Amino acid sequence: MAHISITVNGKRHEADVEPRTLLVDFLREHLGLTGTHVGCDTSQCGACTVHLDGRSVKACTVFAVQADGRSVTTIEGMSADGALHPLQEGFREEHGLQCGFCTPGMIMAAADLLQHNPDPSEAEIRHALEGNYCRCTGYHNIVRAVQYAARKMREQATVEA
Amino acid sequence: MPNFIGSPVKRVEDKRFITGKGRYTDDIVLPGMTYACIVRSEHAHARIKAIDTSAAEAVDGVLAVFTGQDMVDDGILSIPTGWAVGDAMKEPPHYPLAVGKVHHVGDGVAVVIATDKATAQDAAEQVMIEYEPLPAVVDATAALAPDAPIVHDGLDSNLCFDWELGDRDATDRAMAAAHHVTTYELVNQRVVPNAIEPRSAIGHYDPAREELTLYTSSQNPHLIRLLLCAFVWPDLPEHKVRVVSPDVGGGFGSKIFHYPEEVICAWASKKLERPVKWTAARSESFVTDAHGRDHVSTAELGLDAEGNMVALRVKTVANLGAYLSTFAPAVPTYLYGTLLAGQYRTPHIHVNVKGVFTNTVPVDAYRGAGRPEATFLVERVVELAAKELGMDPAELRRKNFIRPDEFPYDTPVALQYDSGNYEGALDKALEMIGYEDFRREQAEARKQGRLLGIGFSSYIEACGIAPSQVVGALGARAGLYESGGIRVHPTGKVEVFTGTHSHGQGHETTFAQIVAHELGIPLENVEVVHGDTSRVPFGMGTYGSRSLAVGGSAIMRALDKVKDKARKIAAHKLEAAEEDVEFVDGTFRVKGTDRTIGFGDVALTAYVPHDYPEGVEPGLDENAFYDPKNFTFPFGTHICTVEVDPDTGVVRILRYVAVDDVGNIINPMIVEGQIHGGIAQGVGQALFEGAVYDETGQPLTGSYMDYTMPRADDLPSFEVGHQVTPCPHNPLGVKGAGEAGTIASTACVVNAVVDALYHRGIRDIPMPLTPERVWRALHAGGDGAAAAAAPAGGNGQA
Ligand code: FES
Ligand code: FES
């Protein structure tokens, strides 16, 4: 057993875990944060995407012990204050989800993109999301959802500036 | 009151999904939960000589290890299929865990149950199984050879059924007299549905109440309960069983069927008197989720000198895999052969289908189920005929379309198409794509060595399955009606109960729109309940684009009953004759007066019946069952343009236009979403996907490492147009939209690629059209098709 201390969605958690415990299993099973999903066992679907120190990672490909002392944001942390993140709003407004299983991972991957590129082209959005499988939407409305959020976040930034 | 019908209302279910609060089966944790890990066969075909579970049982944390024999000894029977194709159909047993022999890689042999997931997995490796490997057969055509290994003991061949439809003699005669015959040999390759949520099941037996709850990622919980209690586990009383399908992360057909793991978790939970959870690893999904397609066919299309289609003759060998899954026999027969008329007036059609067992994962319905296979065949052979005759492919289609004034139209393959306007959809799609301009652009590009192509797919589907009488005559062992319930609460809030199941389709919104519209109440006053046998009286689930056409119609029937009763109450309160009371926008009014009573007041009166009409029961809660009169027949034309890179063989879709006629539309946003997703899956089959086995039955595509699906940067945005020809025989005039995209798009893309390459002597490339296959075709010199690495069989055998 290894002792870890991880800040998840702003809250610190101490736990003893088997060293082989994956971050995604720690989130889902130890913390009950089941918004982060598991869609594969080869790091290809992106359903498990979370942020580790602000960058998106596939939580099935990180051991919980690797996140020791670091900060994790999951989908549950995106609307922690009750207000939807522009991406969450965008997915709803533009019908960017159907079954919703890929959605948390998509939102986390897209959030990483928008942090670094506030005004991405359609091609840039598609490229940024190519690590995330969606089997329902054909991606068309996911692209619209990210464009919606990018617009909204730029507007908010202008207002704040 | 806003008009909810036809309006792109945002989905009410989205909030929980975008905030990470969806509740899928694997998210459920119950007190005392245990975890199952299934030990699976690594052999495609082998006799089980011995199973030693002692080492696994000794692992700390392991509660039990069970084998197939343990289950059989305890009264567990074989999982049946739901359809029969003729009396001679062979139905070998399918035990939840193998007994005596394993029949495909992934077949379950034993189950280890432990207090946590990792322990179960560790212990599963300690289960020692001694096998006697047997020769395996993978390819369906090879499985029919006289010396082929026989998959099932007790059968003398691998032929499951030999089925035909249509007038063979008349078709042969018309073919012999045809001016031109286009022959097309094709493989509709095996694909893996791959819903992103892996399948999961939890059995939860309550010994105190002797009740079992089964949570399962299923598209139809009622059918699972019925199959489990009536066939697989006859000692399990149906009224003591509750099956819950909570949020389900996509299905596409693969979650319709009754799977072994549902039986295993339910049974083991009773044995251990603790909840038992199993969730597939993705690599496990690849060898246990039912696969789709896998046909090898020959099609011959006869035409007269003017280009009129005179006969179509089809021979298909369908790979059914190792066992008959729930819908498996119906897919390559009733859902395939009956659709071979397409949109055309071809007077003579004959189809023969041989269903064959092999040592592969069972094959069953995958989005479209039989209809994509039919459409692919018809639209590819029509396209080739146009090329061979030097006719414009759009005009050859137009010439042969069934015309609007010919409906209802009886096809030579048993269906009666109810309505349609095929030319309208084609014209709209041609206009959207700018056909003439594209042909000019294509000619210009070709001069510069660039390869552009345009492909068509004019499809028809039979949806809204299904009229019980018709499917009964066809061999279904169940009726395919649907139930709907409307429970008006005293405060006027409404619960809607449907036997269909939403796993992405947005029923919680669409059905609420219908009810809010009909009762004239706000959307937020309506709650749609689905996926729980203890709450919904009965249901046949969601597949075959049936939810709105059949389930929505049942809800309409229940609404009629509610409105009738409410009108009686309103008339009494308004002291008017019932026929003088009208119901408009949520208010009952005595016609021509200002005397009114609101729906909410009527609801309250129904539950507080102090002043109440004689002979009317209190309460406002109605159920209805709806059995459709006919299938519905959505149709449309899709057109796409592609560019093929001659140096790399990479196919890029430039534009994709879809014009679909799915009848009346309740929520256009949701319908378009369904079309988009459907197109993507069909494109996946055309360009990327294929389940591949080696000759010993080892799957070579066992994970996302080696099975390719479309990613965001593989696809363009789609241009979707609608045409509306209401369905004439259901109360909503709807037809179903869930499968249209997939049915159309595969042929559309392949036709476009072939159009780009035909002048280079290439008339076909077997799917998937990977860069390698396209490149090889281009560099084979002349007869591209022959050299394009054609797979031996439908499974894309390497
Ligand atoms: S679960 Fe698929 S990438 Fe992590
Ligand atoms: S919404 Fe179902 S997988 Fe993306």
Descriptive notes:
The complex is a heterodimer of chains A (about 160) and B (about 800). Chain A is α+β, with helices and mostly antiparallel strands and about 160 residues long. Chain A has 2 domains: about 1-75, Ubiquitin-like (UB roll) (Roll); about 85-160, DNA polymerase, domain 1, CATH 1.10.150.120. Chain A has 5 helices and 5 strands. Chain A has helices at about 25-30, 85-95, 105-115, 120-130, 140-160; strands at about 1-10, 10-15, 50, 55-60, 70-75. Chain A has a 5-stranded mixed sheet, sandwiched between helices. The N and C termini of chain A lie far apart (about 50 Å). Helix content of chain B is about 30%, strand content about 25%. Chain B has 3 domains: about 15-135 and about 195-250 and about 255-290, Aldehyde Oxidoreductase, domain 3 (Alpha-Beta Complex), CATH 3.90.1170; about 365-460 and about 630-790, Aldehyde oxidase/xanthine dehydrogenase, molybdopterin binding domain (Aldehyde Oxidoreductase, domain 4), CATH 3.30.365.10; about 480-625, Aldehyde oxidase/xanthine dehydrogenase, molybdopterin binding domain (Aldehyde Oxidoreductase, domain 4, 2-Layer Sandwich), CATH 3.30.365.10. Chain B is globular, with a radius of gyration of 27 Å. In chain B, a hairpin with a 5-residue loop joins strand 23 (about 585-590) and strand 24. Chain B has a 7-stranded mixed sheet. In chain B, strands 7-15-14-13-8 form a 5-stranded mixed sheet. Chain B has a 4-stranded mixed sheet with strand order 18-26-27-28, with helices on both faces. Chain B has about 800 residues and is α+β, with helices and mostly antiparallel strands. Chains A and B meet through helix 2, helix 3, helix 4 and helix 5 of A and helix 1 and helix 18 of B. The structure holds FE2/S2 (inorganic) cluster (FES) (2 copies). One FE2/S2 (inorganic) cluster sits at the interface of chains A and B.
